[in-house]
Specification:
The chain is built from 15 helices and 9 strands. It is of the alpha+beta class. It has 3 domains: 209 residues, Hypothetical Protein Pfu-838710-001; 157 residues; 128 residues, CHAD domain. Helix 7 runs antiparallel to helix 11 and helix 8 crosses helix 13. The protein starts with a strand and ends in a 7-residue tail after the last helix.
C-alpha cells in the first residue's frame, strides 16, 4: 500500500495540549517498541528503506517502507507475526525479508539483499530501537479520513538516546488534501513544524553518532513535452519543496551547519524562479506566495552573507595581516540547541524561522498546490509555452554581459540574479530535449555565476567595513585589501563575460 502522511514536530510546551486534543475523540493509547534492521554495510538506509519488527500492544508486526513518488508518499507493507515480541532474544531470528515478496517494496528489498558476486550471503542485524507511547484516533474531514498519531518516547542506539515528540497525520481514506488541511490547522493551533526526517533516518544517524544529515541539494525534474504549464509547475515545485523542507527541517532541529541554510535558500530561489518562469501561463498561482518567499529569502540572505564573510573573506584578510576587527560575525560552525521540543525562544533565529507559522503555512500551501492536477489536453507542447520567455531572459543576460565593464554594482548584482534565474530555469526544462543546447548555455553561465557570487560577497564585506571605519579605524586595512581584490575580480570576469555575451540565443 501507499502511505500518505505528514509528520509535525511538537514543542514540549505544547505536548500536553496536543495529547489532550488527540484524546478528545475516541482515541487509543498504545505502547510501540520496534527494532530496525540493516545489513553490516547499511545498504538499506542508503537506499531509503526501513525494515522493522514492532510490538504494538499485544500484536507484533514486520513492516517494510520505501520511498514513494510524492513528497508525502511511501510504499509500506506490513505482515502480522505470532512469534515473540521485539526485545526478546529471538528478535534477530524473527526477521524474514521473504514476507514482503511480490510487493513493490519487497521486490526492491530483494534486489538490495541479493548476494553480490564473490561475496557471502547478506545478513541482517538490529541497528537501533524505538520505544514510544502513541495516542491515536481517526478524524473525518471534508476530503476524507485521517489518523492522528501523537508519539512520545525515545530512539535508542547503543548507549545513545534521542527523544521523540511528534504528531503524524496519515491518510486513512479519501484524498491527500485531507492530510494537508488537518496539518495546517494543527500546526497553526499548536505551533508545530514540518519535519521530513523519519524515525528510521533519525535512528540511523543516532547509531552513527551524527548530529544531523547531509544538506539536501536540488535534483533533476522529469518534465515531458505533453505536460501543460500547470502540470510542469507542480512537478518543479514538488522538487523544490523537497529540497526546501529537508534543509529547513535540519535548521528547525537546532543542529545544522551553514550549508543547510544555503541549500534551504537555494531551494527557495529555485521556487521563486519556477513561479516567474510559469506565471504568464499559470494564472492560478496564488498572489500571496511571492511576498512571503521574498521575505524568507531576505532573512536567510543575511545569514548567508555572514557565513560567506566568516568562511571566505575573514580568513583571507587575516592571512594578509589584517588586524582583528569585530563585525559581529556569528560562529560559522554547527549551531547547537536543545533537542526536539525545546522552546523556540531558546533557538538560533534561523531555527525559529524554520519553525515559524509563516514558513509552515507556505510549505503546506505549496504542497497542496502540487497535489492538484488536471489532465493535459491533446496536442500540448510545453516547449512552445516556455521557449519565448527563456530566449528573452537569455538575451537580457547576454546584453548585460556585453556591457559588464560599464555597469554599476547594483546592475551587476541584478545580472547575477538574472543568471541564476536563467540557469535554474534551464535545469528545470533540460528533460524536454535539446540537452546539448541547454548544456552549452549552462557551461557559459556557470563560471560567470561563480565569479559574480564571489564579487557580491566581497561587496557585502566591503560595505560592512566601510560602515565600521568611523568606530574603528583599523577597518581601513580591510577596506584597502578588499578594494584591490575587487579590481582583480572585475578583471578576472572579463573573459567569461565575453564568452557569455557571444553565441546564439537559446532556442530548441
Amino acid at each position: 500500500m501507499i502511505e500518505t502522511e505528514i509528520k509535525l514536530q511538537v514543542p514540549l510546551s505544547q505536548a500536553a495540549q496536543v495529547d489532550s486534543q488527540v484524546a478528545a475523540g475516541a482515541s487509543r493509547r498504545t505502547r510501540m517498541r520496534a527494532t530496525y534492521f540493516d545489513t553490516p554495510d547499511r545498504r538499506l538506509s542508503a537506499a531509503g528503506i526501513a525494515l522493522r519488527i514492532r510490538q504494538e500492544g499485544r500484536e507484533c508486526v514486520q513492516t517494510l517502507k520505501t520511498a514513494g513518488a510524492g513528497l508525502l508518499d511511501r510504499h509500506e507493507h506490513t505482515v502480522r507475526l505470532t512469534r515473540p515480541r521485539p526485545g526478546s532474544a529471538a528478535t534477530a531470528a524473527l526477521i524474514d525479508p521473504q514476507r514482503h515478496a511480490g510487493t513493490p517494496a519487497g521486490d526492491r528489498l530483494a534486489a538490495l539483499l541479493a548476494p553480490r558476486e564473490g561475496e557471502p550471503p547478506v545478513t541482517l542485524a538490529p541497528v537501533y530501537q524505538t520505544d514510544l507511547w502513541r495516542r491515536h484516533r481517526h478524524l473525518r474531514t471534508r476530503w476524507g479520513t485521517v489518523e492522528l498519531a501523537f508519539d512520545r518516547g525515545v530512539i535508542i542506539a547503543g548507549d545513545r538516546r534521542e527523544p521523540v515528540c511528534e504528531l503524524e497525520i496519515e491518510r486513512v481514506s479519501g484524498r491527500a488534501e485531507a492530510v494537508i488541511d488537518v496539518a495546517g490547522r494543527w500546526a497553526a493551533r499548536h505551533a508545530l513544524w514540518i519535519d521530513l526526517c523519519s524515525k528510521a533516518e533519525r535512528g540511523e544517524r543516532l547509531a552513527r553518532g551524527l548530529a544531523f544529515g547531509p544538506p539536501a541539494r536540488a535534483r533533476p525534474v522529469a518534465l515531458a513535452r505533453a505536460m501543460t504549464p500547470a502540470q510542469a509547475l507542480r512537478a518543479v515545485l514538488g522538487g523544490c519543496l523537497a529540497q526546501v523542507l529537508r534543509n529547513a527541517g535540519e535548521v528547525a532541529s537546532g543542529r545544522f551547519e551553514p550549508e543547510h541554510v544555503h541549500q534551504w535558500r537555494v531551494g527557495l530561489r529555485r521556487m521563486r524562479c519556477a513561479l516567474r518562469l510559469f506565471d504568464e501561463a499559470v494564472p492560478e498561482i496564488p498572489a500571496d506566495w511571492a511576498p512571503v518567499l521574498a521575505g524568507l529569502f531576505r532573512q536567510l540572505g543575511a545569514a548567508r552573507d555572514r557565513d560567506a564573510l566568516a568562511q571566505s573573506w575573514l580568513p583571507q584578510l587575516q592571512a594578509a595581516g589584517a588586524p582583528l576587527v569585530d563585525l559581529e560575525t556569528p560562529d560559522p560552525g554547527t549551531r547547537e540547541a536543545p533537542g526536539a521540543g525545546s522552546a523556540t525562544a531558546l533557538l538560533d533565529p534561523l531555527s525559529a524561522l524554520a519553525r515559524s507559522a509563516e514558513f509552515t503555512a507556505l510549505a503546506l500551501a505549496v504542497q497542496r498546490f502540487v497535489l492538484e492536477d488536471r489532465p493535459a489536453p491533446a496536442g500540448s507542447d510545453l516547449r512552445a509555452h516556455l521557449a519565448p520567455r527563456l530566449a528573452r531572459w537569455h538575451r537580457q543576460v547576454r546584453r548585460d554581459a556585453l556591457r559588464f565593464a560599464d555597469l554599476d554594482d547594483e546592475s551587476r548584482h541584478r545580472l547575477r540574479k538574472r543568471i541564476k534565474r536563467l540557469r535554474y530555469s534551464l535545469e528545470f526544462v533540460a528533460a524536454l530535449g535539446g540537452r546539448k543546447t541547454v548544456a552549452r548555455v549552462l557551461d557559459r553561465l556557470a563560471p560567470v555565476q561563480e565569479g559574480l557570487g564571489e564579487f557580491n560577497d566581497l561587496c557585502v564585506a566591503l560595505a560592512g567595513y566601510r560602515r565600521l571605519v568611523e568606530q574603528d579605524p583599523r577597518a581601513w586595512f580591510a577596506i584597502g585589501w578588499l578594494t584591490a581584490r575587487r579590481s582583480g575580480l572585475l578583471g578576472e570576469l572579463a573573459g567569461p563575460m565575453k564568452t557569455l555575451a557571444g553565441g546564439r540565443v537559446f532556442r530548441w
